[in-house]
Amino acid sequence: MRPPLPSMILSRSIRFSGYAQFGGGPSPGDRDSRVAEVEPRHGPNTETTGVHRCSQVFNDPMKNIAPTGAQHTIAADGFQAILTELGAGLRSLTLNGRPLVVDYPEDLSPVGGAGLPLLPWPNRIEDGRYTFDGEDRQLALTEPKTGNAIHGFSRSHSWQVLSHDAASIRLGLRLFPQTGYPHILDLSILYALSASGLEVEVAAENVGDTVAPYGFGAHPYLALGTLDDAVLELPAAQWLTVNDRKIPTGRRGVEGTEYDFRTARPIGELELDTAFTGLERGADGLLRVSLRAADGTGGVELWAGDGINWLQLYTGDTLPDEYRRRGLAVEPMSCPPNAFRTGEDVIRLAPGDRVAHRWGIGPIPSAEKIV
Predict the structure, then answer these.
(1) What percent of the chain stands above pLDDT 90?
(2) Mean pLDDT over all residues of the chain?
(3) How far apart are CA 81 and CA 278, in angstroms?
(4) Which pLDDT score, from 0 to 100, does residue 369 have?
(5) DSSP-derived 3-state class of residue 188
(6) How far is CA 7 from CA 62, 199, 247, 258, 284, in A?
(7) What is the pLDDT of residues 325-369, one digit of tens each?
């Protein structure tokens, strides 16, 4: 696996170009503007200069539109990935036709958050309430059963294509102020395939005039048949206890517990919806979580770079039967659950600041029987 670029960047930077399509309008008569323009249904405008124009985004009204919008395909070296307009999600990732992540059909919405980026925070915020720089804020309770806010805003927005070639695509979203989050962020996600697998860069830039709290997360499900027979290796020394609303109540060491996967072993019937930290990295600075077949017929690995010091693992026991324990959600996160409430590992993005995180997924070749 080729080493990725440095995995977290925090800097003052130039604004992203080509974001006019997320707000404002073109100068009168400016036909070269990158703002989406309304064209006649059979008009001449079919260019694809980094963004879909309205004649492409709003397809023929007689044609069904997928629940996740436009589907974008990239491919290289036997890998193929399908990304969605809605949420900039990873709907599918295969190697020579073999799934590396749990996918879902084009005519369905993602199940259990499958493949979605979690921005500008991952996981739950208790009661949807938090205080930032002395200001009390209330988010919408997007997990009504527990009375929490969960997984940010970006998954419910349409993302635009900023660039697209055979092996990579960059999607972008200007996130305007939301209930309980009065900030403006330019978000971009680069998905790129190579001989080693999928590499993802998720970037956020504060283009507003106030300091913004920020956290990164992603929600892929690694696929390897039934979880009960899968072998997990997780280099985490600590896990978080939670209450019945999935809000952390404490931190414990994994030593001597059922949560110790520092040495690879079968998951068995263990149910996980658990945050881990104290992550050990390799000599290359990356942390790796692997899911292997016990008979040695290969597996799949998720890696993550700097600034990603938390992982949420979820075995999918509460999902519908056809998805239950079909894959293991391995969620790289820059901050823990309830971070906006506690302040732990929350990134403060001043106006003009930009931060980026990198992670990826690749195959594990066949090997000797593991257990």
Answers:
(1) 76
(2) 86
(3) 31
(4) 58
(5) strand
(6) 44, 11, 28, 31, 11
(7) 999 999 999 999 999 999 999 999 999 999 999 999 999 987 655
Q: 361 near 351, Cβ under 8 Å?
A: no
Token output for 172: 């972008």
**pLDDT at residue 32 tops 90:** no
pLDDT, one tens digit per residue, over 39-92 is 333 333 333 333 333 334 455 554 678 999 999 999 999 999 999 999 999 999
User: Which domains does the chain possess?
Assistant: 8-364 (2.70.98.10)
* The pLDDT of residue 365: 87
Instruction: Report d(CA 188, CA 208) in Å as an integer.
Output: 16
Residues 6+ apart with CB under 8 A from 77: 193, 194, 195
Report the distance separating Cα 224 and Cα 286, nearest Å.
Answer: 22
Single pTM value for the model: 0.84
**Distance (Å, whole) CA 67 – CA 279:** 36
Higher pLDDT: 200 or 5? It is 200
Token pair listed for 109:
């919405």
Chain position carrying tokens 């290289």: 76
Give the largest Cα separation in the chain, rounded: 70
Q: What is the DSSP letter of 301?
A: E
**Segment 169-176 mean pLDDT:** 99
Cβ neighbours of 107 (radius 10 Å): 9
